[in-house]
Amino acid sequence: MAAQTQYEELARQLSAIGAVKREMGRILPQDCPPASAGVLTLLDRHGEMRMSYLAELLAIDMSVTSRHVAHIAERGWIERKPDPADKRSRLLRLTPSGKELLTELSERYTQTLARYLDDWTDSDVGNLIELLARLRTSFGDCRTRAHHDSTTRTPAG
Amino acid sequence: MAAQTQYEELARQLSAIGAVKREMGRILPQDCPPASAGVLTLLDRHGEMRMSYLAELLAIDMSVTSRHVAHIAERGWIERKPDPADKRSRLLRLTPSGKELLTELSERYTQTLARYLDDWTDSDVGNLIELLARLRTSFGDCRTRAHHDSTTRTPAG
DNA sequence: TATTGTTATACTCTATAACTATA
DNA sequence: TATAGTTATAGAGTATAACAATA
């Protein structure tokens, strides 16, 4: 358990980290907004999957996932095949073109972070990665356990 | 200097941390979106300030800052006084109503984090805070040093 | 001429609800 | 009846550009 002032400070840091995320988004190629890059990265790591599982990995609603997937499918970066086991489902898979784009994305991310984080040690970066991953785990699947009463917000963004 | 795979993983974690930010946003009171909470927190910590300085602290464009400030001013949480030293400027300051709201926000943030992070030690939370703060520092003022060539995006979100 | 702040417009991201097709 | 996915609509956040007032 941590002190109250620590929780307040963590909330503040999380609120402010958006500036870093926006800067990372600025280095992406035309036609590839940050959300598209996120989808492509997950498909690369986890392989072929269904929409519903992708939405779960992204921790966003499937309606939003559907739009992101449509965007990258229209550009030929993924293909959507019917699922032989369930005709309601579609299986998503990277195309060669999508894999090429991922290589480009990886280079840009790496170059940018190497530039900004030039005085960070391997261990520093590793610690941050580990703590961010643990933070996400601690929050679990936020969407499903969300509580909606009259005094709290259900924001769109 | 860190390895390339670490940079890729860090980019991935930063992309995914949005889920945590959204969950934190869900616990805010009606009428107080996350951006408003961020403005109020900064005014509380740094005291009376001008629009331009607030925009710098938020690391967002002043046009956006202006909208956020208008939102919280309309609700009586801050007051905007003319700056006697520069008639173009307006000085922003929390009202008693705004300070009351901040107390409520602090309680909600603390309760939420205490619940999700119940197995985190004081040291864990401290490390994460420190690394996030350092990350923001390493990125510096992202907006002013942004480079805009034909192959990169200038996203709105 | 440069700077402070506001407003108009556009784009990204997300959520809810209504809908179709299939299980 | 329930689930997978799509589409329509709305709201939040941000950036660029044009503008008014002042330095």
Helices and strands in order, then pairings?
2 copies of one chain form a homodimer.
Chain A lengths: L3 H13 L1 H9 L7 H13 L2 E2 H8 L3 H13 L3 E6 L2 E9 L1 H21 L5 H18 L18
Antiparallel strand pairs in A: 1-3, 2-3
Chain A binds a DNA duplex (23 and 23 nucleotides) through helix 2, helix 5 and strand 3.
How would you portray this structure in words?
The structure is a homodimer of 157-residue chains. The first copy, chain A, is mainly α. Chain A folds into 2 domains: 20-119, Orthogonal Bundle (Arc Repressor Mutant, subunit A), CATH 1.10.10.10; 121-151, no CATH class. Chain A has helices spanning 4-16, 18-26, 34-46, 51-58, 62-74, 96-116, 122-139, and strands at residues 49-50, 78-83, 86-94. Chain A has a 3-stranded antiparallel sheet. The longest helix of chain A has 21 residues, at 96-116. The first copy, chain A, is globular and about 50 Å long. The model of chain A is unreliable at 141-151 (pLDDT under 50). Chains A and B meet through α1, α2, α3, α6 and α7 of A and α1, α2, α3, α6 and α7 of B. Chain A binds a DNA duplex (23 and 23 nucleotides) through residues 18, 22, 25, 33-35, 50-52, 60-68, 70, 83, 86-90, 143, 154-157.
